[in-house]
Amino acid sequence: MYRYDQYDQAIVDARVAEFRDQVARRIAGEMNDDQFKPLRLKNGLYLQLHAYMLRVAIPYGTLNSKQVRKLAHIARTYDRGYGHITTRQNIQYNWIKLEQAPDILAELATVEMHAIQTSGESIRNISADQYAGAAADEICDPRAWAELLRQYTTFHPEFSYLPRKFKIAITAADDDRAAIKLHDVGLKIVRNAAGELGFEVYVGGGMGRTPFVAPLIRPFLPADRICSYLEAVLRVWNRHGRRDNIHKQRIKILVHDLGGEEFTRQVEAEWQAIAPQMDDIPMKEFDRIAAYFTPPAFETGLSDEIDLSDPDFARWVKHNVHAHKQPGYAIATISLKAIGEIPGDISADQIDVVADLTERYSLDDLRATHAQNLVLPHVRKSDLYTVWQILRDHDLATASLDLVTDIIACPGLDYCSLANARSIPIAQKIADRFAAYDVQNDLGELKIKISGCINACGHHHVGHIGILGVDRKGTENYQLLLGGSGAEDASLGKITGPGFDEDGIVDAVGRTIDKYRAIRADGERFLDTYRRVGFEPFKEAIYG
Amino acid sequence: MKIITGNDLKTGAVIWWAGDGWSPHVEDSVDVGETGETLLARETAALRVNGGYVVEATQTPEGIRPDHIKERIRALGPTVRLDLSLKPADPTAGDWVI
Amino acid sequence: MADPLRFRDDEPADEPAVTLDAFLDQPDAVSVRIEGGDDVRKLIPAFARLRLVEIDFPRFRDGRGYSSARILRESGYTGEIKAVGDVLLDQLLFMRRCGFDSFAPDHPIDPAAAERAFNAYPAVYQQAADGEVPVWKLRHG
User: What pTM, to 2 d.p., does this model score?
Assistant: First the structure.
């Protein structure tokens, strides 16, 4: 993975010093909260329902064991013993003290980590395919580009007071594991007919109050022009994005209002104006970064056999283990969705266990996924059983990847001051109801996503089954959506009808799943059945 | 009744206006009537509270109960981690919130 | 006494800034005041007479002025660009990088604090209007 050079380290260290000064000025009363808030948000520090919350960046979801241990240390020392993996591959700590935040950032800087631009109206963490560097279906490792863009977008002087937040995702495979079309900018690395490397550029995706699947703005952008092109996209939005209504300021609104064609025209025009002045970052620099993402020293001649005689292990292999491009290796998902636990939460002790596994069994490489799980990308098949046993002993081995209990849920009203309803108890009740392995296995791929408010941090718009918490005359109420998808076949879920209370929504999900079972054809996932028969049969089953 | 909540500036801890100062316990809250905004302005300027706001609440036999579930969760702690709440030893503490 | 938040050697233009429309209408105007939604590229034909561009920040979170300043510099404007209004200490560095060379904040900023802010970062990741060499260039010469 990428290692900071003196410049990267000096920049992060300077940021820590600057923030320390800003915190001191705030605590001394030299700044009020209005003035301080954008500054603390630029360092990922929210004021939340119970305390300050710190969102630490995990660039393109990648960590080494030293960093993982530091995350455990922070959970123990500065928080209440746990962290939460988010839908943007970051980690959040819920019980932070402002007066300690500079120390936390200083500690993170010692392991080449930070909380820069993880909130506020900034260019946020760039997310990537969690199987990057390991999956067989990718053209190249997208993370080298993600790192190039991370540096290009960090402390960009022109784009630090944007109309709203800005999220970029990147993938290099046809299977979109990073939900790129639901991002402000989605990048897919491709080769053109001449074999040249470039990007499909999607702009204007997003969820929240007005969800959109991003249109394709540029079918092929030569890879070495990505920075100047992104500059043009950002500048068009910075200049022309709305500033009058916070709910209408994302770039997706501008793209929608102008129409894809006009938006593209403006971007191309701005790009023509910029190009003479702006040196795109040269390929020498890209090559320097890419050298950190060459394949690790895989062993050769390893066995591809896995002894599946232990039935629990066999189930875990079936669901949580993905093929690796290198013979003898596998990609293993660590589930943070133990039945009855909080989706995405991980204790300090568990983090330390994961650190050891990362170092010993995954070539010191760990990933966070936008589905709130973790991945060991480079596990020898011969080590899978040992890894599984350790995970099992620490409640990290739920065999449920992409199954009905592998639910994405935002923290919701239990933690978040923006929320209208609690989301975690809903996730827990659904997981409880469908906990039995045979039930999960029979249902197959079924992605449930729950958001506690319209901000959609739980990605409910793109759940096969989505749940949205709302406030209905002061009480919690839940809307049900069907048919969303965040993959390459992106689609937005459709609201079924009137909402439900807490028990009602769980029952409604139950009726939906019963209907699926009753009418599915052989081999059909829930999403396939829904797309085949449409909305009405499910609506009838839910509401009678 | 109208009560006030906010966060301690330095620690972020949830606090409630108790009349003579700030308390971590909602049951110490006092009715501020229509003086809430003035009070908040003074306390905010004095750096004794951050992010404060006025909350509607009801006096019940069991004590002061914020009218909205969000403030009840704020008063107690996450319903899904009662061990981290203000009443970790009470398994029924979450009932008060709902 | 020289304005401590003005980083130019020449004399300030002493004519009051007029709106963009007025400036374009008045052939002898030398100072213009740009609002967030104005298109600064309309000034390009008038660069020869233009001495001062004031860019207004009614709210510091409205970042359109940063693009305006940068576009002016990219287009070859070498006169004064002044940030006016809700300008706080923590915005000065990026404003300077985007081409602002003077500042008229609503509330005074301590010049010593400003100096520290300008020097807070030993390196930058991007080319901008200030000519600072970005890290990627330093790495490869």
Answer: 0.96
Nearest CA in chain C to A285: C136
What are the structural domains of chain A? 6-110 (3.90.480.20), 134-289 (3.30.413.10), 311-393 (3.30.70.3340), 408-543 (3.30.413.10)
Q: Do B13 and A51 touch (CB under 8 A)?
A: yes
Classify residue A122 as left (phi > 0), alpha (psi -120 to 50) or beta.
Answer: beta
In our burial notation (b when 16+ CB lie closer than 10 A, e otherwise), range C90-104 reads bbbbbbbbbbbbbbe
Contact yes or no for A51/B7 (Cβ under 8 A) = yes
**Structural domains of chain C in order of their starting residue, each with its CATH number:** 18-140 (3.20.20.70)
Determine how β-strand C52-57 pairs with β-strand C31-34: parallel
Of C62, C63, C88, the CB nearest to A35: C88
Nearest to A155 among C67, C125, C139 (CB): C125
3+ Cβ–Cβ pairs closer than 8 Å linking C and B = no
Contacts of A170 (CB under 8 A, 6+ apart): A60, A126, A127, A128, A129, A142, A145, A146, A149, A178, A180, A186, A187, A188, A189
Per-residue model confidence as pLDDT tens for chain A (544 residues):
999 999 999 999 999 999 999 999 999 999 999 999 999 999 999 999 999 999 999 999 999 999 999 999 999 999 999 999 999 999 999 999 999 999 999 999 999 999 999 999 999 999 999 999 999 999 999 999 999 999 999 999 999 999 999 999 999 999 999 999 999 999 999 999 999 999 999 999 999 999 999 999 999 999 999 999 999 999 999 999 999 999 999 999 999 999 999 999 999 999 999 988 888 889 999 999 999 999 999 999 999 999 999 999 999 999 999 999 999 999 999 999 999 999 999 999 999 999 999 999 999 999 999 999 999 999 999 999 999 999 999 999 999 999 999 999 999 999 999 999 999 999 999 999 999 999 999 999 999 999 999 999 999 999 999 999 999 998 999 999 999 999 999 999 999 999 999 999 999 999 999 999 999 999 999 999 999 999 999 999 999 8
* Both structure tokens of C17: 């800034």
Nearest CA in chain A to B15: A50
Q: DSSP string spanning A110-150?
A: HTT---TTSSSSSB-PPEE-TTTTT-TTBSS-THHHHHHHH
Residues of A in contact with B66 (CB under 8 A): none
